[in-house]
Amino acid sequence: MRSIVLTPPQRQVLIRQMKRETKPSRRLRMHIVLLCADGYRPSQIARVLYCSRTTVYTTARRFTTFADQRPRGPAAALDQRAQQRLERLVEQEHNFLRSRWTCPLLAWQLLRERGLAVSRETIRRALHRLGFRWRRPRPVPPPRNPEEKRQRLLQILAALRQLARAEGFFFQDETRLELNPKLGFAWMRRGHQQPLPTPGTNRKVWLSGALNWLTGRLHWVVGPRKDSELFLRLLEELRWSYRCHRRLHLALDNIWGASWCARAWPTVGGGSASIRCRPGVLRPILWSRSGGACMRRSPATIAVQT
Q: Angle, to 10 degrees, between the axis of helix 120-129 and the axis of helix 103-114?
């Protein structure tokens, strides 16, 4: 019996096909080829796989005879150059009105460039052979400018230095409170799921608060959702609490319509307010005051609104 030699890539492909094969006879032949490549004798293979030595000899002879021949079937629709072009297309951006490459779009692009009329299933199989997988992309935020952030912080510090006695400065932020605790992964015994007591039906409310920079006093309002009405209620709370102040300055981390509310507030009977942006400094305070019941939130984009 001629010896069978498999390269590491060929061995991996054969093992992968053997695990996915549903026909027992083909899976047996693949197993015989792998054991022959590992150096086992035909008698040992027959004893381990519960088959005859004739089956082992026949399988090894057929594999060594037809291994160097051209595979049966039609020629590949995508040759080596087309596959290389397909690999470059997937890794580069395009000018179509789409956010990603799709199999029909790649097939149309190959037809346009090389005149290859292939189906989307052919493109999909070729991408799998090239090592590509259909996965969700990872969103990446835009790069931040340290100098721009520094200028905004200097603006806030300048506003604090020029703050008059009849004016108030507040750091505003909001968070969501839930009655039920947040579920996460924890270490447990195998086969045992640790129970977590809950109050029952979950209730969600939004908490918007403002911290007085001079006195450290915290003001907050509660609402069913995060909208402009919640922000207007907070401004109304600050207005009644600081009736002696002529102007209120608020530092926010996310505008979400607050600039419009600040402009509309004087028309509904409010005072005067200026809106500035500052990275969230009130969220840890709201977290501690609410007993850690609020949920985490991603930082918002920094902007300045006066």
A: 100
How far are the Cα atoms of 244, 251, 258, 260 from residue 267, in angstroms, in the given order? 19, 21, 15, 11
State the Cα–Cα distance between residues 29 and 17, nearest whole angstrom.
12
Question: ∠ at Cα 232 (229, 235), nearest 5°?
Answer: 155
Q: Is the pTM of this model over 0.90?
A: no
Q: Contact at 8 Å (CB) between 30 and 86? A: no
Structure tokens at 300: 């918002």
CA dihedral 277, 281, 282, 287 (to 10 degrees): 140
Structure tokens at 175: 């968070």
| Average pLDDT estimate for 236-248 | 84
Per CATH, which fold does 146-179+202-289 belong to? Nucleotidyltransferase; domain 5 (3.30.420)
Q: Are 267 and 235 in contact (CB under 8 A)?
A: no
Only one residue has tokens 């209730």, namely 203
> Is the model's pLDDT at 176 over the cut of 80?
yes
State in Å, rounded, how far the first CA of the chain is from the last one: 86
Using alpha carbons, select from 52, 59, 47, 46 the residue that is nearest to residue 18: 59
* Beta strand 218-223 pairing with 204-212: antiparallel
Q: In the chain, what are the domain boundaries?
A: 8-66, 80-129, 146-179+202-289
- Judged by DSSP in three states, 302 sits in coil
DSSP E strands in the chain: the ranges are: 167-178, 204-212, 218-223, 247-252, 272-277
Task: List pLDDT tens digits, range 120-143.
Answer: 899 888 888 888 888 877 777 778
